[in-house]
Amino acid sequence: MEFNNDLPIYQQIMNMIKYDIVSGKIPSGQKLLSTRDLAIKLKVNPNTIQRVYKELETEAVCQSKRGLGTFVTEDDEVILMMKETLVDDMVKTFIEGMTKLNYSRENIIDKINCQFEKGDQQDVNIN
């Protein structure tokens, strides 16, 4: 994983895990990699992963079970709320970027519709 210098590494890792959960790549109830194993995989300090897991637990995204590891929540409501928050953040970032390029609301909507049409013509699945 390549990290962005504009955001703390632990937050980037948290976001990666959240995306994997809401997309279903990591299913609810699944055990996450150990702190050590994830740190090795991502080439970061284990303390960084420990902070990630602590923050995710504070947000009720996961829970640690003493002696067993850290597990993704099985609460579908928590996962749905997390997904909505991620989507809202993505849309907000997109709109802010387009606004900086002097696109009006109508121009933005036209661009989105154009991309959907291009996707339909190319048989691309846009969820």
Automatic annotation (TrEMBL):
PROSITE patterns noted in UniProt: HTH_GNTR
Domain named HTH gntR-type: residues: 7-75
The protein's name in its UniProt record: GntR family transcriptional regulator
CDD domains reported for this sequence: WHTH_GntR
UniProt keyword terms in alphabetical order: DNA-binding, Transcription, Transcription regulation
Pfam families for the chain: GntR
Record lineage: Bacteria, Bacillati, Bacillota, Clostridia, Eubacteriales
Originating organism: Fusibacter ferrireducens
InterPro entries linked to this entry: Tscrpt_reg_HTH_GntR, WH-like_DNA-bd_sf, WH_DNA-bd_sf
